[in-house]
Write a structure and sequence with these properties.
The chain is of the alpha+beta class and 177 residues long. The chain contains 4 helices and 8 strands, in the order E-H-H-E-E-E-E-H-E-E-E-H. The protein has a 3-stranded antiparallel sheet, with no helix packed on it. Strands 2-3-8 form a 3-stranded mixed sheet. It has a two-stranded antiparallel ribbon with strand order 4-5. The protein is globular.
Length: 177
Protein backbone atom coordinates (compact mmCIF):
# COMPACT_ATOMS: atom_id res chain seq x y z
CA UNK A 1 0.00 0.00 0.00
CA UNK A 2 1.00 3.55 -0.63
CA UNK A 3 0.92 6.30 1.90
CA UNK A 4 -1.35 9.27 1.41
CA UNK A 5 0.04 11.65 -1.28
CA UNK A 6 2.40 9.05 -2.73
CA UNK A 7 2.11 8.45 -6.44
CA UNK A 8 2.77 5.19 -8.19
CA UNK A 9 4.40 6.85 -11.18
CA UNK A 10 6.44 9.45 -9.39
CA UNK A 11 7.77 7.51 -6.47
CA UNK A 12 11.05 9.32 -6.02
CA UNK A 13 12.56 12.14 -4.08
CA UNK A 14 14.37 14.91 -5.93
CA UNK A 15 18.06 15.23 -5.11
CA UNK A 16 19.02 17.93 -2.66
CA UNK A 17 20.22 21.10 -4.28
CA UNK A 18 23.72 22.00 -3.31
CA UNK A 19 25.28 25.32 -4.27
CA UNK A 20 27.60 24.99 -7.21
CA UNK A 21 31.22 25.68 -6.53
CA UNK A 22 32.08 29.13 -7.82
CA UNK A 23 35.46 30.28 -8.90
CA UNK A 24 36.32 33.90 -9.32
CA UNK A 25 38.93 34.87 -11.84
CA UNK A 26 41.33 37.71 -11.57
CA UNK A 27 42.87 39.63 -14.43
CA UNK A 28 46.18 37.86 -13.86
CA UNK A 29 44.53 34.53 -14.75
CA UNK A 30 43.96 35.70 -18.33
CA UNK A 31 46.87 37.86 -19.35
CA UNK A 32 49.22 35.08 -20.36
CA UNK A 33 50.10 34.58 -23.99
CA UNK A 34 48.94 31.59 -26.02
CA UNK A 35 51.80 29.30 -25.01
CA UNK A 36 51.65 30.35 -21.37
CA UNK A 37 55.33 31.21 -21.24
CA UNK A 38 55.48 34.99 -21.07
CA UNK A 39 53.15 37.42 -19.44
CA UNK A 40 51.66 39.96 -21.83
CA UNK A 41 50.31 43.42 -21.14
CA UNK A 42 47.86 43.57 -24.06
CA UNK A 43 44.15 43.43 -23.34
CA UNK A 44 42.17 40.36 -24.37
CA UNK A 45 39.48 42.36 -26.14
CA UNK A 46 40.01 44.89 -28.87
CA UNK A 47 37.26 47.46 -29.01
CA UNK A 48 36.72 50.44 -31.25
CA UNK A 49 34.08 53.08 -30.78
CA UNK A 50 33.08 56.14 -32.76
CA UNK A 51 30.26 58.64 -32.97
CA UNK A 52 29.14 60.64 -35.96
CA UNK A 53 29.23 64.43 -35.87
CA UNK A 54 25.42 64.69 -35.54
CA UNK A 55 24.96 61.84 -33.04
CA UNK A 56 25.04 63.88 -29.82
CA UNK A 57 22.49 66.38 -31.16
CA UNK A 58 20.07 63.62 -32.24
CA UNK A 59 20.66 60.77 -29.79
CA UNK A 60 17.38 61.32 -27.95
CA UNK A 61 15.25 61.70 -31.09
CA UNK A 62 13.15 58.85 -32.51
CA UNK A 63 14.71 57.02 -35.43
CA UNK A 64 11.95 58.25 -37.76
CA UNK A 65 12.98 61.87 -37.14
CA UNK A 66 16.65 60.97 -37.68
CA UNK A 67 15.69 59.33 -40.99
CA UNK A 68 13.91 62.53 -42.06
CA UNK A 69 17.04 64.54 -41.28
CA UNK A 70 19.20 62.08 -43.23
CA UNK A 71 16.87 62.38 -46.24
CA UNK A 72 16.92 66.20 -46.10
CA UNK A 73 20.72 66.23 -46.00
CA UNK A 74 20.96 63.76 -48.91
CA UNK A 75 18.61 65.92 -51.00
CA UNK A 76 20.63 69.02 -50.12
CA UNK A 77 23.95 67.42 -51.09
CA UNK A 78 22.66 65.55 -54.18
CA UNK A 79 19.81 67.68 -55.64
CA UNK A 80 19.43 65.61 -58.84
CA UNK A 81 18.43 62.32 -57.23
CA UNK A 82 15.27 60.93 -55.69
CA UNK A 83 15.64 58.81 -52.55
CA UNK A 84 13.29 57.06 -50.19
CA UNK A 85 14.35 56.70 -46.57
CA UNK A 86 12.51 54.40 -44.20
CA UNK A 87 13.06 52.83 -40.81
CA UNK A 88 12.63 49.32 -39.55
CA UNK A 89 12.65 48.04 -35.97
CA UNK A 90 13.32 44.38 -35.17
CA UNK A 91 14.45 42.28 -32.22
CA UNK A 92 18.17 42.70 -32.96
CA UNK A 93 18.03 46.48 -33.35
CA UNK A 94 16.87 48.79 -36.09
CA UNK A 95 17.86 50.01 -39.54
CA UNK A 96 17.56 53.02 -41.78
CA UNK A 97 16.79 51.81 -45.31
CA UNK A 98 17.91 54.21 -48.06
CA UNK A 99 16.98 53.50 -51.68
CA UNK A 100 17.96 55.62 -54.66
CA UNK A 101 14.87 55.76 -56.88
CA UNK A 102 16.21 57.90 -59.72
CA UNK A 103 19.34 59.68 -60.79
CA UNK A 104 20.84 60.84 -64.05
CA UNK A 105 23.80 58.49 -64.14
CA UNK A 106 24.19 54.86 -65.04
CA UNK A 107 24.61 52.58 -62.08
CA UNK A 108 25.84 49.30 -63.62
CA UNK A 109 28.73 48.56 -65.91
CA UNK A 110 28.88 45.89 -68.57
CA UNK A 111 28.20 42.32 -67.50
CA UNK A 112 31.20 40.47 -66.04
CA UNK A 113 31.76 36.80 -65.31
CA UNK A 114 33.55 36.10 -62.04
CA UNK A 115 36.07 33.35 -61.33
CA UNK A 116 33.28 30.89 -60.54
CA UNK A 117 31.36 31.48 -63.77
CA UNK A 118 28.59 33.64 -62.28
CA UNK A 119 27.40 36.77 -64.05
CA UNK A 120 27.61 39.96 -62.07
CA UNK A 121 26.94 43.59 -62.75
CA UNK A 122 29.32 45.79 -60.76
CA UNK A 123 28.55 49.43 -60.04
CA UNK A 124 30.15 52.19 -62.05
CA UNK A 125 32.64 54.37 -60.15
CA UNK A 126 30.08 57.21 -60.12
CA UNK A 127 27.39 54.94 -58.64
CA UNK A 128 29.78 53.62 -56.00
CA UNK A 129 30.80 57.18 -55.09
CA UNK A 130 27.12 58.14 -54.77
CA UNK A 131 26.33 55.22 -52.43
CA UNK A 132 29.48 55.89 -50.38
CA UNK A 133 28.50 59.56 -50.05
CA UNK A 134 25.01 58.64 -48.90
CA UNK A 135 26.42 56.17 -46.38
CA UNK A 136 28.79 58.85 -45.07
CA UNK A 137 25.81 61.17 -44.50
CA UNK A 138 23.94 58.44 -42.59
CA UNK A 139 27.04 57.62 -40.51
CA UNK A 140 27.08 61.18 -39.17
CA UNK A 141 23.93 60.32 -37.19
CA UNK A 142 25.15 56.90 -36.06
CA UNK A 143 27.14 55.56 -33.15
CA UNK A 144 29.01 52.29 -33.33
CA UNK A 145 31.09 50.27 -30.95
CA UNK A 146 32.72 47.07 -32.10
CA UNK A 147 34.35 44.50 -29.89
CA UNK A 148 35.95 41.21 -30.87
CA UNK A 149 32.69 39.27 -30.83
CA UNK A 150 30.03 41.93 -30.30
CA UNK A 151 28.85 45.01 -32.13
CA UNK A 152 26.62 47.78 -30.86
CA UNK A 153 25.19 50.35 -33.26
CA UNK A 154 22.39 52.88 -33.12
CA UNK A 155 21.12 51.62 -36.49
CA UNK A 156 22.27 49.59 -39.47
CA UNK A 157 22.37 51.28 -42.87
CA UNK A 158 23.33 50.10 -46.35
CA UNK A 159 22.13 52.40 -49.13
CA UNK A 160 21.25 50.76 -52.43
CA UNK A 161 19.54 51.36 -55.75
CA UNK A 162 15.85 50.48 -56.00
CA UNK A 163 14.88 47.40 -57.99
CA UNK A 164 12.88 49.50 -60.43
CA UNK A 165 15.94 51.61 -61.24
CA UNK A 166 18.10 48.51 -61.58
CA UNK A 167 15.65 46.84 -63.96
CA UNK A 168 15.26 50.02 -66.02
CA UNK A 169 19.02 50.48 -66.40
CA UNK A 170 19.70 46.83 -67.10
CA UNK A 171 16.95 46.74 -69.75
CA UNK A 172 18.03 50.04 -71.31
CA UNK A 173 21.67 48.98 -71.61
CA UNK A 174 20.87 45.46 -72.80
CA UNK A 175 22.10 43.66 -69.71
CA UNK A 176 18.89 41.66 -69.30
CA UNK A 177 18.06 39.12 -71.92
Amino acid sequence: MYKRGQSTLYNFKPPKKTPAARRTFSKSDFDWDVQGIQKTTASASVSESNEGSQYQATKNLPLKVVAQRIKAEIQRKYPGISVSVGTQHYSGGCSVNIKVNSWKGRHVMVEEVDAYGFKRYPYTPEAKALLDGIETIADQYNRSSFDVDYSDQRFHCTPEFSWDLRAKDEKEFGLLK
